[in-house]
Design brief:
- Helices cover 60% and strands 20% of the residues.
- By secondary structure, the chain is α+β, with helices and mostly antiparallel strands.
- It has one domain.
- It has a four-stranded antiparallel β-sheet, sandwiched between helices.
- A hairpin with a 5-residue loop joins strand 3 and strand 4.
- The termini are far apart.
């Protein structure tokens, strides 16, 4: 009976250790993935590109345009459908800036905001 308890305890500790290792690996991977996309968009924002340049550049690399909402109601709808936990931020920025575009970039969705002149002013990055 004592041997069985030792074996079961060892298995439980091994399983808990493996679970923790995989959990930390997943968190690390998600953090790295997210910061890479955020960094990419931050560098793009620093260049203050025009809407046409952003759309063309992202399309050419395979990040397809998902939506180009017109007006606050469409921004709210898009945020509710695709924004997940950042929906409130998307609505706030999407109503602050006159133009919003949403792109599917690998496993992320980029919400990019442009001013009235079509210059990129902000972004939100959401895991897909």
């Amino acid at each position: 009976m004592k041997k069985l308890a030792i074996v079961l305890g060892s298995l439980a500790l091994t399983a808990a250790g493996a679970y923790l290792a995989f959990l930390l690996g997943a968190v690390g991977f998600d953090t790295r993935r997210f910061t890479q996309h955020e960094g990419r968009l931050r560098r793009l924002l620093a260049r203050q590109p025009r809407i046409e340049q952003v759309v063309q550049g992202l399309e050419e690399e395979g990040s397809h345009l998902l939506a180009a909402p017109v007006g606050p109601a469409e921004v709210r709808q898009l945020a509710a459908e695709r924004g997940g936990p950042r929906a409130k931020e998307i609505v706030e920025k999407g109503t602050r800036w006159p133009q919003t575009r949403a792109f599917l970039a690998a496993d992320m969705i980029y919400f990019i905001y442009f001013d009235g002149d079509g210059v990129m002013r902000d972004f939100t990055c959401v895991s897909h």
